[in-house]
Amino acid sequence: MHYQEDWLLRQINTVINTLAVLFTGKKLTSESIRDMELQISYSEYYKKVFKLVETGDINKAENLLFSVLKNMEKEEQSETPLLALLFYYKLNELSDEELDKKNFSRKEIMEGIESVKKLFLKSSL
């Protein structure tokens, strides 16, 4: 079971990095993550989403994220993918125990990333 969880963790990181290159032109590094956070940390949605994660309500945070993603305007498209990438990147950094306590799983992280990918590929066509 532990092997499967490690495999899924690596798969999630691979997909997030691929999307980061597509959306930002850069691989995720500690520096690029810091840059992305600085770029969107002023955003009301960034603050709300990560406050919910902090308080343990990941499901509500994800619902808010998708509400933002589905209702984004053209001018918001540059920061909205960053919010989604940071959200799932940070969730994937949590331990399995932390995710479990917050009623979330790596499988849900992967499903969320796939949904984000579909939304953005559809909107970029």
Automatic annotation (TrEMBL):
Protein name (record): Uncharacterized protein
Species name: Miniphocaeibacter halophilus
Species lineage: Bacteria, Bacillati, Bacillota, Tissierellia, Tissierellales
